[in-house]
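Tokens as discussed.
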């Protein structure tokens, strides 16, 4: 991987601390969690194993995983006060705002009293996020007060069950599992850095995660998967996609789902989620969304040498699974919570308040002129 040209805007290229959790753009496929290549994890592990890895530094044994999954299963349901709050949130609210409120409110009713409870708080959020998302979604969109507990074996399966009211196919459960693995952790990205800055003030876990959700929401970060879906849905065919994208570039618009702050020529997560998109497209019988996505990928590389990041083929993949577009970024939250919480714990274990300096470019020193004379 060639070095990316750097200037200091956006803190690009500057080390802002140490981490033992993740490397981005450095070795193997370019993305490792605690030393494991992400493609190895996507092929040979489950999301719960990855969550355990990020929280403990090692993959679990069978006994440890069984115990961990049982613990998470017991934490899936949410209390009536949180349900009542979710019921108050209007249908047209962006689901990321619902996640933010849900996370914050859980911190009101089940606060992290001290740091000895940090793992408990992280596991609670991990287990409860699918319920927060789906309870609000199905109440506001369908008028249903769903049962938020389920005995689905995986968190991905649990989410699909709450969303659709039925047990998902083994394949959909596996795709969700892979997707959650791919999104779990990514070093000092903007939302994780937000969580670490908040943690560095010795704030509580819920505040750190609430801030991170707000940061992930933007279309330059996690919100790109939804924005990519909105875009490709407007294209009528692969050739129409190329024509319309050329016009977008001409107008100097950003094409969501392309480019990256660290990777230079490819995002290692793309090849994995793209393969699932292709598989689901073929099974679906209508491959047009996948074909259009491939045309976008070809066009962006040929014209700008920009490549698909993790978000782009997630759009078609989730769409083929029947997931509403507005829930794409909240699913990212359900996954990235693991990385965020692991970074909060890491920051706390060797903390100094994060407080950089700024280069002042404002007015020279001056005196206040009394208001009547201005
Ligand atoms: C899971 C994730 O969060 S992955 C990222 C998801 N975000 C997106 O997909 C949004 C679209 N992509 C982008 O906006 C950017 O590529 C970012 C935010 C991801 C990275 O930003 P940067 O590090 O500043 O990008 P980079 O330095 O490579 O940009 C170089 C040039 O390419 C352009 N460029 C980069 N990405 C794109 C894009 N998707 N569409 C059009 N032009 C682009 C930039 O505008 C920049 O040109 P400029 O210097 O004339 O402004
Ligand atoms: O690392 C980044 O800047 C964005 C990203 O891909 C992620 O958070 O997954």
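Sequence:
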């Amino acid at each position: 991987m060639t070095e990316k040209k750097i200037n200091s805007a956006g803190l690009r290229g500057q080390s802002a601390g140490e981490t033992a959790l993740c490397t981005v753009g450095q070795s193997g496929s370019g993305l490792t969690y605690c030393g494991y290549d992400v493609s190895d994890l996507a092929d040979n592990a489950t999301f719960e194993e990855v969550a355990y890895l990020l929280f403990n530094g090692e993959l679990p044994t069978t006994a440890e995983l069984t115990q961990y999954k049982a613990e998470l299963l017991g934490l899936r349901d949410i209390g009536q006060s949180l349900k009542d709050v979710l019921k108050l949130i209007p249908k047209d609210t962006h689901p990321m705002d619902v996640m933010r409120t849900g996370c914050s409110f859980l911190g009101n009713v089940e606060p992290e009293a001290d740091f000895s409870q940090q793992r408990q708080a992280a596991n609670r959020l991990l287990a409860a996020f699918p319920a927060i998302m789906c309870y609000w979604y199905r109440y506001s969109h369908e008028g249903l007060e769903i049962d938020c507990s389920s005995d689905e074996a995986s968190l991905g399966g649990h989410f699909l069950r709450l969303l659709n009211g039925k047990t998902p196919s083994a394949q959909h459960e596996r795709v969700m599992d892979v997707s959650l693995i791919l999104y779990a952790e990514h070093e000092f990205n903007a939302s994780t850095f937000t969580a670490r800055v908040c943690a560095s003030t010795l704030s509580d876990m819920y505040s750190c995660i609430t801030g991170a959700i707000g940061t992930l929401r933007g279309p330059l970060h996690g919100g790109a998967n939804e924005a990519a879906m909105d875009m490709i849905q407007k294209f009528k065919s692969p050739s129409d996609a190329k024509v319309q994208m050329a016009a977008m570039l001409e107008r100097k618009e950003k094409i969501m789902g392309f480019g990256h702050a660290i990777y230079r020529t490819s995002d290692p997560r793309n090849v994995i989620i793209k393969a699932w998109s292709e598989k689901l497209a073929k099974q679906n019988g209508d491959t047009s969304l996948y074909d259009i996505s491939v045309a976008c990928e070809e066009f962006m590389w040929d014209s700008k040498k920009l490549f698909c990041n993790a978000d782009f083929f997630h759009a078609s993949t989730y769409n083929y699974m029947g997931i509403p577009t507005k829930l794409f970024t909240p699913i990212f939250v359900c996954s990235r919570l693991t990385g965020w919480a692991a970074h909060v714990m890491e920051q706390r274990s060797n903390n100094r308040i994060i407080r950089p300096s700024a280069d002042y470019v404002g007015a020279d020193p001056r005196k206040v002129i009394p208001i009547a004379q201005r």
